[in-house]
Specification:
23% helix, 45% strand
């Protein structure tokens, strides 16, 4: 009888482990967490870029006010007309949520240190959120962007490093993130004025790694460039491959260029869809 009981217990443990692994292999949690980190730090840079361009540190325009309205105040130290660098830019959204013209809520501060003109090769921008929340997700970490000049197609490229990043959800769950990218300015580099800012788009290539909210480590590689745009809060197109520890490879498809929140995930021949926050 004892042998039978031990056999049943062993079978139960194997069956339970197998069921749990099947459930984890169907989960899109890792893909959702990676996409949330991607969106959070893309947002931090978009806000900073708009502030730079609207404060005579780049081509002129008033995109910041048209997108963020009266949600934030921008200060620069040392202030213009002092033309010396580095400059520290503080973008303050206040302590309560403020909704922009696209329905996105933000609060907290973004601090950026810029070493020169945005368009000048060699310029670096170090961006650090301070108690910064995007739709109630807290974004922490450091994003460093460096202008490395034009590529063979004549498009300006930037290296992008994200370190010590954490996205904390309203329920207290969190995901960690690191990445190393190249960002190519593919649309809008030659245009000026308000339209010249609002039409800007970039293609992003590179790799990332992190830990999802369940504590599972993963590695990510961009297999088709991610297209991001000033006028879209989500990644418009591109694909990535995510390899969570001990699970099947995930292929994440952000679409074909439409500005929408739909993300498709393929896992071991099965397709799933989730909507970005």
């Amino acid at each position: 009888m004892r042998v039978v009981v031990l056999t049943l217990v062993a079978f139960s443990l194997v069956f339970s482990t197998s069921c749990r692994k099947r459930k984890e292999n169907r989960s899109t949690t890792t893909s959702q967490d990676q996409a949330a980190a991607e969106a959070g730090f893309d947002d931090v840079f978009k806000v900073t870029e708009s502030a730079i361009k609207d404060n005579d540190l780049e081509k002129s325009g008033n995109a910041f006010a048209s997108i963020y309205g009266n949600c934030a105040t921008v200060s620069i130290n040392p202030p213009l007309p002092d033309t010396t660098f580095p400059k520290t830019i503080t973008i303050d959204f206040g302590s309560t949520n403020c909704e922009d013209s696209y329905g996105v809520n933000r609060r907290g501060q973004i601090i950026a240190v810029i070493t020169g003109k945005y368009r000048d090769a060699g310029t670096s921008i170090t961006i650090t959120p301070q108690d910064y929340y995007l739709n109630d997700n807290k974004i922490e970490g450091t994003k460093t962007v460096q202008n490395i000049g034009p590529n063979s197609d004549g498009n300006t490229e930037f290296t992008v490093e994200i370190s010590n990043a954490t996205v904390t959800y309203p329920d207290g769950d969190f995901t960690t993130y690191e990445s190393s990218r190249v960002r190519e300015w593919v649309v809008g580099e030659s245009t000026d004025g308000l339209l010249g800012i609002l039409d800007d788009e970039y293609d992003i290539t590179g790799t990332a790694s992190g830990t999802d909210r369940t504590g599972r480590d993963y590695e990510m590689t961009i297999t088709s460039p991610l297209r991001v745009a000033v006028l879209c809060r989500w990644v418009k197109q591109g694909t990535v491959e995510i390899q969570p520890e001990d699970l099947y490879l995930r292929t994440v498809d952000f679409g074909n260029g439409d500005c929408d929140a739909t993300v498709n995930v393929e896992i071991n021949g099965n397709n799933y869809t989730f909507i970005m926050n």
